[in-house]
Design a protein that fits this description.
Two copies of one chain form a homodimer. Chain A is elongated and about 100 Å long. Chain A has 575 residues and is mainly alpha-helical.
Chain lengths: 575, 575
Amino acid sequence: MTVLPIEKFVPAVGWLRSYSFQDFPGDLTAGIITAILLVPQAMAYSILAGLPPEVGLYASIVPPILYALFGSSRALAVGPVAVASLMVASALGSLALPGSPDYILAALVLSALIGLFLLIMGIAKLGFLANFLSHPVMSGFTSAAAIVIAFSQLKHLLGLDIPRGARIDEAILYIFGHITDANSITVTVSVISLALLFVLRRYFGPILMRVGFSEAIANTLVKAGPMFVVIFMTFLSARMLWNETAGLVVVGSIPAGLPPLTLPEFDFALWRELAISAALIALVSFVESVAIARVLASKRRQKIDVNQELVGLGVANLGAAFSGGSPVCGGFSRSVVNFSAGANTQLAAIITACLIALSVLFFTPLFYYLPQAVLAAIIIVAVLGLVDFKALKVNWVYSKSDAAAWLVTFAVVMAEGIEMGIIAGVGISLILFLWRSSKPHIAIVGRVGSSEHFRNIKRHQVRTCPHVLAIRVDESLFFANTRYFENYILSAIVDQPEVKHVVFICSAINAIDGSALESLEQLITDLKSAGVTFHLAEVKGPVMDRLQRTHFLEHLKPGEVFLSTHEAFKALDCV
Amino acid sequence: MTVLPIEKFVPAVGWLRSYSFQDFPGDLTAGIITAILLVPQAMAYSILAGLPPEVGLYASIVPPILYALFGSSRALAVGPVAVASLMVASALGSLALPGSPDYILAALVLSALIGLFLLIMGIAKLGFLANFLSHPVMSGFTSAAAIVIAFSQLKHLLGLDIPRGARIDEAILYIFGHITDANSITVTVSVISLALLFVLRRYFGPILMRVGFSEAIANTLVKAGPMFVVIFMTFLSARMLWNETAGLVVVGSIPAGLPPLTLPEFDFALWRELAISAALIALVSFVESVAIARVLASKRRQKIDVNQELVGLGVANLGAAFSGGSPVCGGFSRSVVNFSAGANTQLAAIITACLIALSVLFFTPLFYYLPQAVLAAIIIVAVLGLVDFKALKVNWVYSKSDAAAWLVTFAVVMAEGIEMGIIAGVGISLILFLWRSSKPHIAIVGRVGSSEHFRNIKRHQVRTCPHVLAIRVDESLFFANTRYFENYILSAIVDQPEVKHVVFICSAINAIDGSALESLEQLITDLKSAGVTFHLAEVKGPVMDRLQRTHFLEHLKPGEVFLSTHEAFKALDCV
């Protein structure tokens, strides 16, 4: 099938044109199941972000439809997610009171900024910037964020007024000090919800299988567990009127109706203030979403286009900004549910979005008596799966520096908050990266027997001459390693005062950047003033072409460019 | 000679123990000449930093002596320099009024912070962090800083009150609007000073050589030009009492006496506020100093220890903080003067420091009538040599991305100031770096004829089998390139649905970091679920040892580890 030009920008055109109605049953089932999972999650994560529950529902309508059109993954389910919601709360917490109109407006600006960042990165093909985040950093970050999120829900579970912005240690002290003030009905509801969620998760699947459901269907139905708990507890709470009789906090009235058309305020000071937070949320959202999308795509031998993902996520977040939603990205558990419930195309996501739109239109009164403690329990059960100390252990055994990156990121998130944590993580990744890249492998080589082969003097029995130093760098030369090879060569000639010629073997050098060219010229000058001539050997064609555009080869004189190391040795009387 | 343990920490012990009195005449001459150059420079750069002139002189006494003891360079001359002084002015400008007691105290804190940063980096052996700054970024930064410095001196040259903090375009507009307010005597003094400085620079050397001085001595004496101009103009200004009769601004009284013992205030808020500026100044100072030290050392086949340089510069800056000075680093022109005037050891720097101490004790009254316009002229002549548009041109021809880095850094310094400029420069360097590193060279290989050699299918005529895909990555695997090779392999198997086995040839892989290991495991799982088995071939010993510490090899099953690509092909029935 030919690829229409528009398909390059709107991948949906591709799957829509070739849509086969055999795919429809899978898409429909997946759409329904995902919606059942998403409704409680969307409300819960919205509250976690400090926003009213409907904002999370709005974010599950327009943004996923836009992602369905512009994203490249077939099965990624987009909406509010836990870690990004915590980052939203942390970004907006100092600007306005959670839940206040100013806070909601600022959330729209944040969504718009995140969308713009992602879209610009996608158009400029900057997907490689996700490399700023290494796996251990991402794992340490997510684990710590999950613990912070779990603790942040304790106030809902216990019905305690833990002061906003309290650190974990302060929150724990507060709880110990005020445990007698906890609301007993709230605690009861929390305990029942947590117990039900755990029991459903562990035993519901096997029971379903025993009564004859297939493993796939059983596993998918298990994911609807939170919805069962929501329905059951809401029924109980409505029946007993605990909110009126015993002070149980419930979700309350959610405005009915489709998402409003909103316009993120253009207040330059606010945009500027939120820019860094937005960039960090964009980065984390992107890395998470692509990781999930890639896992799912590879299971069916489909491709993910990283830059198209940026465009899809960017447009989705812009959609959130204009439809009263909060920032969105791909969620792990819901994408897996969507995929294993049979989603073949993004039509499943569109069906999910339509079902959520229906529930916002007609079913919001049903959530009036839903206790917030139930949503808190759902959040806790969802995020505890993200805590991954095993990754630390594996890294510790395999690579101490990766384990250190994990630990530092984890510790900084716990001590200094989620934004500083991700900044510290990126910083550490970069430092490890620079450290690693700043030391290319360098070998001093000599002749093997009387052959034309030259090998590392440390590993092979080779012959050398005192007046010739032949050095091979096994990496392209660029600014991160210029200092190292400069130093290496200068040190070598200091240690061997009888050296008169340096032969620089370029067989493994694919490119020389501007910094390295300048370093080489400086090195040549320095060596000249120390009475040493610098020669090149085995320079690759493309490298030579670029050198010839500069004055480098004149500068090299009396140094020469030899075709091979053998010729260099012959010309320098080292036989 | 044996190396005493203390020499590792105090390199001066080395050259002091082995000091030969043959070195003394050179050290003495260099010490005197450098002092003559340094006195006017120290005062001028101090005024540029917004500090009283004596602060620059204090910074030229204790810090260079400390550097002499702890630094590893034999010829580096340490003291206040132009670019760092501009950065100091920019860091402190928003905190206090230049020259006020608060401003001077903040400068001490800044010196202490810079010293601590450098010292900690040195002790932790983080010298490689200087790789954050590529040559084009450093060149664009210095060029723009030099222009900013030159413009900042116009107010002294013209005797105009250009508002503090004005951008270059605002300053130019102000000058055009107020040119009639310029002080005529000040302008006259400036023109004469600039003319003398240029004439001395260009014609003094040839004249000296014609009357019989050697080229080396002539070139060195030329460097004393600024001191001649200072003496001549001060004499003129004192004789005519222009400061009283015509409003010429003069340096005025400088307190006599040795540097005071000062204690940088421990005000946590101030330390925190100055931390980023201090880190940036430390980075720039370090990169500059090491570049100069390395050039000079290599001329005499001496070595520079990058981490020891950090210690030396760190201790020097701490010394500045405790002796009333301003931040210091190695200066290019004065180090070259010191070196070419014959400095053999840091004794020359100690002699310079003693001479400056003498002049602070006894000669400060002589500078009373020194016009500030003369110091401004000295600054302008000194910094204009730093503007290096040629570097832009060379980079443009050789490497567009390096030229872009130069231009962006230059433009951001001009538009947003010196700190944002260096931050932008570091950012661009890192992005270029990541971009470059994120795309390792990958080849799909096939068998050459019926040999046991395997080569890139794009470059050689080779035989392959449809069910086996053999891939060779020509770089170590680590987090910056994991996404690329993952994607590459997943794309390749999507394009070739008949592939059942992937053979991953590790002959060029020296290390696999934690992120890459995790990616490989994920890739193996993904490939399994797509019905493809993943095998390794030609794994190096150290890499294999580390893999065996994990569960990777169990995870790999039924994939195998083959000794060679040939064996892999044989086992997979691809002959």
